Amino acid sequence: MTADTGVSLPLASRLRYGAEAAVFFAYIGLCRLIGLRAASAVGGFIGRNVFYRVGPIMDRARANLRAAFPEKSDEEIEAVVLEMCDNLGRTVAEYGHLDKFSMHGENPRLEIVNRELGDAAIASGKGVMFFSGHFANWEMMPFIATQLGYEGGEVYRPPNNPIIDRWLVTQRAKNGPAEQIAKGPRGTRKIFTLLRRGKAIFLLTDQKTNEGIAAPFFGRDAMTTPAPAMLALKLGSILLPASNERLPGSRFRMTIYPPLQFTPSGDEDRDVHALTCLINDTVEMMVRKRPSQWLWIHRRWPTTRAQDQLGGKRSVQALRDEPV
User: Minimal CA–CA distance to 324: which of 186, 219, 215, 117?
Assistant: First the structure.
């Protein structure tokens, strides 16, 4: 049975998920056994020497980078891809040690820049959406915010494997928000409730969503969720950008940027699209600061779907109940 629906899975699926989980937990167990520092180093080695050699996926990353940074040389592109792979390998290994990431104690591993911007946004009581992308170890933003006392919920995309999903939810709760919200219509309603109560929401807005709207990202239209823009316009909630950067020794720095400023025109469809474009522009700005910290392997840019959207944007009403 799946955790959320109670629907029984076919035997083949249960066997496959069980086998995947066994391999995953064996690796995580090894990472826990050797400690955080060694696990991160091993993960980085795997990233540079295994992930980096997965041709089709790395070719996608190179193509994305060339389109985003046409001025970069092949050598510069390759350096970004290699560092991205190192970071990805370390991030996977660090999942075995999520309980060790704290801003406090004798060996703090997390730090924040511009905390005053977060404090002011929370103090407004309007509800705050901290939005970011897959930077460094992307689990750290809600960890830092929670440890600063920002109450709310973390939005996440559940992995296909329900066994691993349940484990990840448990691990995140050790240092992050207890409220974890799976993407989907029910999740969007939960986000709405928390924002109306003046709480914080932590979400990543940089992944392709087929149910979204076309908004420019690095000069190309990318299917993007309109939900943050819709919620901000409806509730008056604050959209607060935040990036995450890997530092030496499995340490991370979260930087908060000034809240987005947007004046509605009164045309709901136009305002949702314009604010979604502004969100993408802001994520692009954060990526440009250190490109190797972002996950370039996403299929972020579609082909025909986004072009179709340009000719006739879907109405806000049609998008209202779709996933964040």
Answer: 186
Beta bridge partners of 180: 154
The residues that bridge with 179 in the sheet, in sequence order, are 153
| Whole-structure pTM value | 0.89
Q: Is the dihedral of CA 292, 295, 300, 301 positive or negative?
A: positive
Q: Three-state DSSP class for 239?
A: strand
Task: For Cα atoms 32, 36, 37, give the angle at the middle one, nearest 5 degrees.
Answer: 140
Q: Where are the domains of the chain?
A: 11-319
Three-state SS across 173-238? HHHCCCEEEECCHHHHHHHHHHHHCCCEEEEECCCCCCCCEEEEECCEEEEECCHHHHHHHHHCCE
Angle between helices 140-147 and 162-175 (to 10 degrees): 30
Q: Are strands 200-204 and 152-156 parallel, antiparallel or unpaired?
A: parallel
Picking from 247, 202, 250, 287, the residue whose alpha carbon sits closest to that of residue 95 is: 250
The 8-class DSSP code of residue 314 comes to P
User: Which pLDDT tens digits describe the chain residue by residue (324 residues)?
Assistant: 444 545 577 888 889 999 999 999 999 999 999 999 999 999 999 999 999 999 999 999 999 999 999 999 999 999 999 999 999 999 999 999 999 999 998 889 999 999 999 999 999 999 999 999 999 999 999 999 999 999 999 999 999 999 999 999 999 988 888 789 998 888 889 999 999 999 999 999 998 888 899 999 999 999 999 999 999 999 999 999 999 999 999 999 999 999 999 999 999 999 999 999 999 999 999 999 999 999 999 999 875 544 454 444 444 544 554 556
Task: For 138-172, give one letter per residue: b (16+ CB within 10 A) or e.
Answer: bbbbbbbbbbbebebbbbbebeebbbbbebbeebb
> Tokens for 126?
């309007």
Residues 6+ apart with CB under 8 A from 99: 171, 174, 175
